[in-house]
Design goal:
With about 300 residues, the protein is mainly alpha-helical. The chain is built from 15 helices and 6 strands. Strands 1-2 form a two-stranded antiparallel ribbon.
């Protein structure tokens, strides 16, 4: 009896923890139902609710309170900027929201994103690069970034865009369609409460497949440029233009001074005309070389 009393508190703690973990997990079917019930979901989203459910399993393995460690939170991994704009709250508060509330915020974001040219064009194609365009593919288009999706469409090939990990929109669509890796019985709740041996004995949240921003992922260079602009208040492109303009003006002044000195020496007879012409040509060549080199950066 004494041993039982000693073990009881630990058992209760473990039971409560397991219930709490399970409560924070949802299934693809529950996500799909939430999409159909969302007042913010477009007719297209409601018609493709099952695909959204699969997307949620791909993005978060069904966890409502998951944070990917860099930018995104919740069942459908909204980033900080979009949480503030569409959920009007903080990521810390957002991850405590129930399924329907999170889905309503994501539906508002995605319904708006679906009005962009790229997803509308892709959805209207029927087939792309020899494969059927379904809801999974259109959702992958939005999640990996509308600009990146348009780049793929323009190329006419699934390989027209890939993120820094080599993931194309078509590959992401396949991964959404085929579902996340499952452990004990395919139930993400069981995989969390009963650790999967293939995962080293403990559950690990899915690794974010790319740098997430806006509606989806950005290439590394674009992400760095946006981070620089956010921190400095000026874009890297504008900064390059300013540096180029200042450097060009400075070098031009030096070269003009040199040409003026050549004409002065020629006027007083210190140099011959052929030396004047040669000096001016060399000066112009130096200036053109400088402009070419600076334009490469």
């Amino acid at each position: 009896m004494r041993i039982f009393k000693q073990l009881l508190p630990a058992w209760l703690v473990n039971a409560v923890s397991a219930v709490a973990i399970a409560a924070a997990l949802v299934t693809a079917t529950q996500v799909a139902d939430a999409i159909r019930n969302s007042p913010n979901a477009s007719p297209w989203l409601k018609a493709n609710a099952d695909a959204v459910g699969r997307l949620a399993m791909f993005e978060s393995s069904g966890q409502l309170d998951v944070y990917n460690g860099s930018c995104c939170t919740g069942i459908l991994q909204m980033n900080k900027k979009n949480i503030r704009k569409y959920a009007e709250t903080s990521p810390e508060d957002f991850k405590t929201w129930d399924l329907q509330s999170q889905v309503d915020a994501w539906s508002k974001l995605t319904t708006e994103a679906m009005q962009a040219r790229a997803p509308k064009t892709l959805a209207g194609l029927g087939t792309f690069d020899g494969r059927e365009v379904d809801g999974d593919m259109v959702l992958a288009c939005v999640q990996l970034g509308i600009g990146n999706c348009q780049k793929m469409i323009n190329s006419g090939s699934c390989n027209g865009f890939a993120d820094i990990n080599g993931t194309t929109i078509c590959k992401m669509a396949d991964r959404i369609r085929n579902g996340p890796p499952t452990g004990n019985n395919g139930d993400p709740v069981d995989d969390l409460i009963q650790p999967n041996p293939d995962q080293g004995g403990t559950y690990r949240p899915p690794v974010d497949p790319c740098i997430r921003e806006g509606e989806g992922c950005l290439p590394l260079t674009e992400s760095l440029e946006q981070g620089f602009a956010s921190g400095s208040g000026v874009s890297m492109g504008n900064l390059r233009a300013i540096i180029f303009a200042i450097s060009t003006a400075f070098v031009t002044l030096i070269l003009m001074s040199f040409i003026t000195a050549l004409f002065r020496n020629y006027s007083i007879g210190s140099i011959e005309k052929v030396e004047l012409v040669s000096g001016v040509q060399k000066t112009i060549m130096i200036g053109m070389s400088f402009i070419v080199v600076m334009s490469l950066f």
